Amino acid sequence: MRRNVLVAIPVAALISIAAFSQAPAPAFRKVTSVEGITEYAFPNGLHALLFPDPSKPKITVNMTYLVGSRFEGYGETGMAHLLEHLMFLQTRTRTDIKKELTDHGADMNGTTSFDRTNYFETLTASDENLRWALGLEADRMVNTRMEKSILDKEMTVVRNEFEMGENSPSRTLFQRTLETAYTWHNYGHLPIGSRSDIENVPIDRLAAFYRKYYQPDNAVLTIAGKFDQAKTLAWIVQLFGPIPRPLRKLAPTYTVEPVQDGERTVTLRRVGDVQEVMAAYHIPAAAHPDADALEVLAGVLGDEPAGRLYKALVESKKAVSESVDTLSLHDPGILMASATLRQDQDLDEARAILIRTMEGMAAAPPTKEEVEREKTRLLKDIDLEMTDTEGIALALSEALGDGDWRLLFLSRDRIKNVTEQDVARVASLYFKPSNRTVAEFQPDKSPDRAAIPKTPDLTALFKDFKGGATISAGEVFDPTPANVEKRVVRSKLANGMNVVLLRKQTRGGTVVAQITMRFGDEKSLFGKSAAAGLTGPMLMRGTKNKTRQQIEDEMDKLKAQISINAGPNSVNAELQTVEANFAGALRLVAEMLREPSFPQSEFDQMRQEYIASVEKTRTDPQSLAVTDLRRRLTPYPRGDVRYVATAEEDIEDLKKLTLDDVRQFYAQFYGASNSQFVAAGQFDAAQIQKLAAELYGGWNSPLPFQRIVNLYQKNAPADLKIETPDKEMAFLVDGMRLKMSDEDPDYPAMSLANYIFGGAFSSRLERRIRDKEGMSYGISSSVQVPAKDDGAMFVASARCAPQNAPKVEASFKEELARALKDGFTAAELADAKKAWLQERAVARSDDGTLVATLANREYFNRTMMFDQALEAKVTALTPEQVSAAFRRIDPAALVTVKAGDFKKAGVYQ
């Protein structure tokens, strides 16, 4: 009997085989091409999707393995997710994968779902980075180290992630709903798995799972961004070609969830401050035509503010929020509706309204207006997603898990054709009491059951599918500070508004803009933080000429994403759309900013939402610890805009706040005299300059503005403990004040020192406490340095199991002492410089980030040459300078706050 033996193949050997063998390179064949994405197949079973986009200097490499929690057997729950973690550690040819990713400045992650697992890295576009990323994926496909010592350390990290989820009643209630809705199918288990399986899975069983599924014939490699296709195909052949097609044959999963034959119920009782109710209904697989009609149906029910559930539950004040989501998967999935209530609201009444609204859709079918509105919103989101290659690469992973990457486009096309009759039909088919999970069993002589259709034959489904037109590509744009600055055009309106325009050709003709207005001063804003916080978001709830729903409809017609958020002394409007609709979107934003109507009903709903969101934090370890630390490092009197309120104080202020307070705040402070208008993307600069003057040039601020300073205040050290009963995850945070601004000579060195110590993906803290000791799912540090002012802060935080908190705290202090005593090495510095610079380059290739950067620089009378100078200073740093700057941190001055169920764990007693 032949055995399928997996042999370690070093990447160097793979390259040398391809480079020096006299045999011809392995062949590949083109499978199909849809909307600029081309699929290739290779002899060993590997498939690759190539999506070139030269408009931005970045590239995403995404490896999708067609395995997720659906494939796990008894005792194996969470195995696919455990394996995802191990893939970031070591191979037989690499000792530190996370460090390599960091050194290349990669934006990276791995995710595990029900039907697939994926790993991606987005990097600055270059031949060296692309070849390295492909080599990494080829290496960990066959050479990942499967050893008990490695599993034992990483298992505790994964368990900590499990515990973090257990802290959330909403996440746990979702898990309980799935467990009850599915009796046999593995969709009844979340990919995180059960605690016992995570803790006890044998390494040989995990290794067998890896050898079985992590093979070229079960993988799809996606490359999106700026790259040479011919070179890339050659490198795929060189790096993946020597990996043989496995001898084993993968059998498809075959468990079919039986038709549900009666209502089911589940109750969860835990510590918490809000109530929730969920209702789930079985639905067909993502490939089935009904899935897209159900997606529209979910929006008709759950969207704000037009959704039927929103009107029935939130507008009527029976709940503070609601949502409806479809879990469309490879096999038949779930549509789930939920509502969140405060403790003084009636849970039984809300449950009855939720069920009655959903199951009443058959008797009160959706209107054409409701369906068209939701289709417009969904198609807008898809169109905007298609302008970002990284987003597309990750979306393809989801479609691959569902059965075929072309489902991404087929679903879009099907949504276009959904009618109100289709939506009414699927509501009638699937929203039945016998298909519902929230009620108890009741005998029924004539059960009315929902039979879920089989997953379609995907080969037949795509036999003649061609897809739509390929989206237009943008220009090749180099986002270096000097090049950005060369393209920027600045001007000032008569009332003082600064206008900053960066015109360039973009993929899909997209454009991003930000309007920021600042107001008031320390004295005039005293005691008005609650009013300031609600005034900004209320601007999207209605204008003199438009209701909230009309605003939402107009945004969808304009293919615009718009948000308005406010701080205690500023309001910020952000929008993204396409060139043809940019002027219209700007006029809509100006209407919201200048002509709000402040409806009483919307104010009441928003205030309740804010109160409920604050109430959720009252027992959350992270919220409690961070708030306590911030209060000690920012000691201002209550009423000052810099004051850090407790949850109880926030709730008290919100309950006192009236609509008149909001209206008066708007009248007293809002105007455009102290503001920035920043746009980047594809537009007519002269037209937009003229439009900015028309919309804002005559709008003056009622009161003068004075920047609120952030000055250094020495803090007193402290060591504090907060008990949070019945919480599975603890949170630790340390912090202190530093006297430093971003103009301080030590600022570049301090930034890089923190990057090495706790800011990078493979920082010293990560490598010690997460990777080596396996004590924390997430640990990091940051140095928060303001512009101009000197009130900086050093903060480090970690999540862990309560019983591990003392060890995590001790390890952090040891690492801090070592860094202060021994400093940083030349090798660490060289790697950090390269990664830090590449991360900044990747960030600037995102127009939203670039617009925010330009706005910040404009506010402080700076140009992008500030960034160029900063990067030059970082490039020139020596280990001595970086080590000396980090020594401005004083361990004796730290404030330590830890929150968790320490009493139950028997620690810190």
How is this structure best described in words?
With 909 residues, this protein is α+β, with helices and mostly antiparallel strands. The chain folds into 4 domains: 230 residues, Cytochrome Bc1 Complex, Chain A, domain 1 (2-Layer Sandwich), CATH 3.30.830.10; 175 residues, 2-Layer Sandwich (Cytochrome Bc1 Complex, Chain A, domain 1), CATH 3.30.830.10; 216 residues, Metalloenzyme, LuxS/M16 peptidase-like (Cytochrome Bc1 Complex, Chain A, domain 1, 2-Layer Sandwich), CATH 3.30.830; 188 residues, Cytochrome Bc1 Complex, Chain A, domain 1. Helices cover 43% and strands 17% of the residues. The longest helix is centred in the first third of the chain and has 19 residues.
Beta-strand content:
15-25%
Q: Ranges with pLDDT <50 over ≥5 residues? A: 1-23, 439-444
Task: Could you tell me the CATH topology label of the largest domain.
Answer: Cytochrome Bc1 Complex, Chain A, domain 1
The number of helical elements comes to 34
The helical percent reads 40-55%
Can you name the CATH architecture of the largest domain?
2-Layer Sandwich
CATH superfamily of the largest domain: Metalloenzyme, LuxS/M16 peptidase-like
Supply the key terms.
909 residues; alpha+beta; Cytochrome Bc1 Complex, Chain A, domain 1; 4 domains; 7-stranded mixed beta sheet; 6-stranded mixed beta sheet; 34 helices; 22 strands; 43% helix; globular
